[in-house]
Amino acid sequence: MLKTNLTAEPGKQEIIIIHHFNAPRDMVFKAYTNPELIPHWWGPKRLTTKVEQMEPRPGGQWRFVQHDSEGNEYAFHGVYHEVARPERVIYTFEFEGTPGHVLMETVTFKEVDSKTMMRDISVFQSVEDRDEMLKTGMEEGASESMERFSELLSKVYAG
């Protein structure tokens, strides 16, 4: 299993996540932008994810809702600003539990020897917003999501 690297330098408004996948870039991009596959990898396993809206095109909107075993709901939404197949996706991200704290996320996909390096840069409105996101256990959630995504890719695109 490949490791997820998360970098959050003190005093900066960004978080950078890098993960390498054993799949070609076109396949990784296609899976990343497929609403039918999102529930299988997005977020921790202990939560179920429902895609209420996902229009991966400039100006398109997305909204995912997660539920835990106790019936709590966690919703996230945003707007796609750029979708450049298969190189890049840029969109906003907002957790509805803390409205007004919007970040801009740029995800790039680079093919290296038939594998893919995904680089996800999240830029927050302030260092404080970034630090609050880190306190939520975001690093563990991101790592688990990337592990789940790797597992999904190996099943869906095996051989």
What is this structure, in a nutshell?
The protein is an alpha+beta fold and 159 residues long. The protein has helices at 25-32, 127-135, 138-156, and strands at residues 5-7, 14-21, 48-54, 61-67, 73-84, 88-95, 103-112, 115-123. The mean pLDDT is 95.
Explained architecture:
With 159 residues, the chain is of the alpha+beta class. The protein has a single domain, classed as Alpha-D-Glucose-1,6-Bisphosphate, Chain A, domain 4, CATH 3.30.530. It is 23% helix and 40% strand. The chain contains 3 helices and 8 strands. An 8-stranded antiparallel beta sheet has the order 1-2-8-7-6-5-4-3. β1 and β2 form a beta hairpin. The longest helix is centred in the last third of the chain and has 19 residues.
Succession of helices and strands: EEHEEEEEEHH
| Average pLDDT figure | 95
Distance between the termini: 17 Å
Largest sheet: 8 strands, antiparallel
- Uncertain stretches of 5 or more adjacent residues: none
Question: Looking at the structure, what is the overall shape?
Answer: globular
Helix content: 10-25%
Q: Which labels suit this protein?
A:
159 residues; alpha+beta; Alpha-D-Glucose-1,6-Bisphosphate, Chain A, domain 4; 8-stranded antiparallel beta sheet; 8 strands; 23% helix; globular
